Amino acid sequence: MMCPFCYIGKRRFEAALAQFEHKDCIEISWKSFQLNPDMVTQPDKNIHQYLADIKGWSLEQSRSMNAQVTDMAMDAGLHYDFEKAIVANTFQAHRLLQFAKSKNLGDAAEERMFKAYFTDGLNLDDTDTLLKLGKEIGLNASETEQILKTNAFAGDVKNDIQEAMNIGVRGVPFFVIDRKYAVSGAQQPETFLGALERAWNERTQA
């Protein structure tokens, strides 16, 4: 949810899916993954400084890298505002995603979380913010509040992360098609389209 290439990858995959002849037969399931599970939420820390600290970069290098990613996002039709981005642990947001998936709202939840972080500058570790986002995508407010008050769906988050580790995922975005073909990174739409077509052809032949 905080990986800038994941949001870009989502848009590029959607562009490929729009061209895929059998798109109505495709089911998409978002999986939880945390690049830094131990991240401490720091609402007052600038994301440029945070990246500089963990990567060993200068502040200028961090700003330059984020500017390049912002341009890449713009090419995908997205608006990133790193000046507003809030350093936050996303485990609670992933629990909300898992709850949304149980209501067939997984894609809507993922899309809203991406926009909340990269465009709106919202804190994904803030309960009130997550309640607001859940309501926006159609989740029942009282159910969502109860989920966030407990440890519900924590196991689902951990299971997704373990599954990813088991198949060798060490970075994101990472797409698995028909549990056979992997596409790593925010590839161009034609790469995704080729993988979809290959997986479809093999399934129909079988």
Give an account of the 3D structure.
The protein has 206 residues and is mainly alpha-helical. The chain has one domain (4-205): 3-Layer(aba) Sandwich (Glutaredoxin). The protein is built from 9 helices and 2 strands; from the N terminus they run ααααααααββα. The protein has a two-stranded antiparallel ribbon. Helix 1 (4-19) crosses helix 9 (189-205), helix 4 (91-102) packs antiparallel against helix 5 and helix 6 (127-137) packs antiparallel against helix 7. The chain is globular, with a radius of gyration of 17 Å. The termini are far apart.
Identify the overall geometry: globular
Q: Helix content range of the residues, please? A: 55-70%
Percent of residues in beta strands? under 5%
- What's the SSE pattern? HHHHHHHHEEH
What would the CATH topology be?
Glutaredoxin
In DSSP terms (H or I, runs of 4 or more residues), the helix count works out at 9
Number of strands: 2
Main sheet characteristics? 2 strands, antiparallel
The CATH architecture category equals 3-Layer(aba) Sandwich
Low-confidence stretches: none
